[in-house]
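Record type: monomer structure entry
Structure origin: computed from sequence
Chain ID: A
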Amino acid sequence: MLKRAFDCSCAALGLVALAPVFAVIAILIRADSPGPVFYRQVRVGRHGELFRIWKFRTMTHVQPDGAPQITAANDARITRIGRVLRRFKLDELPQLINVLVGEMSLVGPRPEVPRYVALYPTHLKEIVLSVRPGITDLASLSFRHESEILARSKDPEREYVEVVLPQKLALSAQYIATHSLRSDLVLIIRTLARVFRRA
């Protein structure tokens, strides 16, 4: 209950405080390329429930058939403003809406698309899906350069499934086994510090 109250309070305050930033980003996205401001994709949440995640759109609106569901740093679909938003993680800010309505938490395992959740080992799947997914977590910090890692691979999707995903799942399980409000605060501070350091 304390974690949920903390999430709701921070998400509400964040949405109000960041409203001017949202407005500027929205204008830049619309000026840069045709299409909607937000991108909504189906993700798997707590107990396997599906929900639509909120993100600022960073890619071209029209996607080719069979487009991959992971994004490498050199992906030609990423727009000019999208590269800036991704670099500073600003595309993730609208997920405060998901937090406010109870689909996500500020800190928790990053929510995946159903395609990759289907590949989770059974024991880890039960653990990872036992909590609300989050905007940031241990795996997000450890793989903050994930898109660059995938860009260096000849087969980005295979690299993600066979190398990156198992490590992220292990970190998510570690977080769930040890998390507390104090550890969540530490992870939030570490996340903000990395964003500002990159800026």
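Annotation 1: Residues 2-198 form one domain.
Annotation 2: The chain has ten helices and four strands.
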